Amino acid sequence: MLKSNKNIKVIDLFSGIGGLTYGFKSAGLNVVAGIDNDSTCKYGYETSNKTRFILKDINDVSSEELEELYKDSDIKVLAGCAPCQPYSKLNQKGATDQKMMPLKKFALLIREIKPDIVSMENVGGLVNKDKYPVFADFLAVLDELGYYYDYKVINTADYGVPQSRKRLVLLASRLGPISVPKPTHEKHITLREIIGDLPKIEDGIIYSDPLHYARKLSPLNKKRIEATPKDGGTQKSWPDELILDCHKKESGKSFGSVYGRMWWDKPASTMTTQCIGIGNGRFGHPEQDRAISLREAARIQTFPDDYVFFDDNEEMTIGAIAKFIGNAVPVRLGEVLGTTIQEHVNCRL
Residue 303 is part of a domain; what is its CATH number? Predict the structure, then answer.
């Protein structure tokens, strides 16, 4: 963990359950608050990160209240991953102006606060400025205010995250030139390395670790996963009666990885909010006849096993926990970005 002699304060916009915050804190940064409009994130965020969670919609956040949080700081860091669903290939038709507002508000807060450093992470498709002029507008604000910045679409597997996850990463600074960090892992961490030690489980059964739980499969989906070859198999091996009608059409060929199994000796598929369902992507366990468990998904997102996602005294659905995990910035990526920010401050001041 690096340390700076400067009082660096970080605010994490769109913090969710706190993957980015935890990564930044692991790199030695002082995250003074996370802001999100999902009240169910509060307990896990504050318990695991020992910092303040502010329940508020981004559009209701004022620069004045952020300045109060930054009080007495030498270096102000504003970080955030605006909700990425509007920029997903699956949601392009629904990318309305209203849904674009979070990123626009992020840019507005930058204009008003002028933080020393900005960190932004989002889906890789956002880099297409012709399709998403909101990103071009975001960069225009940085240009107007005289920021140095760098952005790239990276694969998180190159940074020690055991999943192939393409993300747009941007770092901007008023202190001097700054660059997106270079890959840290030439050899990718595999699924076997990250979940191979977990005990074997059956779908739908609760064990001693409540997060090592795999969603109960329907009888038909049980037959499908049983018919899927181990270690990377797909529905191409199924008998005709198991194949969905929509997948038999020409248009269904693009869904070839759906119902597929992951590979033991490769990084996992990209974790999403639907990662515990075999019908939502390549989320089948490479060997056991089930989808991955919540614990496995959390490890793939590089959350430590002692990370708290919910209050044991409150009822929480597995879908809600999967949403926490799938929406999060991988902790390891947050740590790499946090370390880069620390090094940048130390070199510039």
Answer: 3.90.120.10
The whole-model pTM stands at 0.92
In a domain, 87, yes or no: yes
CATH of the domain at 152: 3.40.50.150
The answer as to whether 150 is a domain residue is yes
Q: What is the pLDDT along the chain (349 residues), one digit of tens a residue?
A: 666 667 999 999 999 999 999 999 999 999 999 999 999 999 999 999 999 999 999 999 999 999 999 999 999 999 998 875 555 544 444 444 555 689 999 999 999 999 999 999 999 999 998 888 999 999 999 999 999 999 999 999 999 999 999 999 999 999 999 999 999 999 999 999 999 999 999 999 999 999 999 999 999 999 999 999 999 999 988 998 898 766 655 544 555 588 999 999 999 999 999 999 999 999 999 999 999 999 999 999 999 999 999 999 988 899 999 999 999 999 999 999 999 999 999 998 7
- Give yes or no: residues 37 and 53 share one domain: yes
Rounded Cα distance between 279 and 281, Å, is 6
CA–CA–CA angle 193, 21, 125 (5° rounding): 75
The pair of three-digit structure tokens given for residue 244, joined into one six-digit string: 């969905």
Contact between 86 and 133 under an 8 Å Cβ cutoff? The reply is: no
Is 271 found in the same domain as 178? no
Are the CB atoms for 15 and 42 separated by under 8 Å? no
* Residue where the block lists tokens 């318990």: 47
In a domain, 12, yes or no: yes
Which of 41, 81, 84, 275 is flagged as catalytic? Answer: 84
Q: Is 246 designated active site? A: no
Measure the CA–CA gap between 13 and 26, rounded to whole angstroms: 18
The reply to whether 228 and 307 lie within a common domain is: yes
Could you list the residue range(s) of the whole structural domain that residue 17 is in?
8-183+329-348
Coil/strand/helix, residue 128? coil
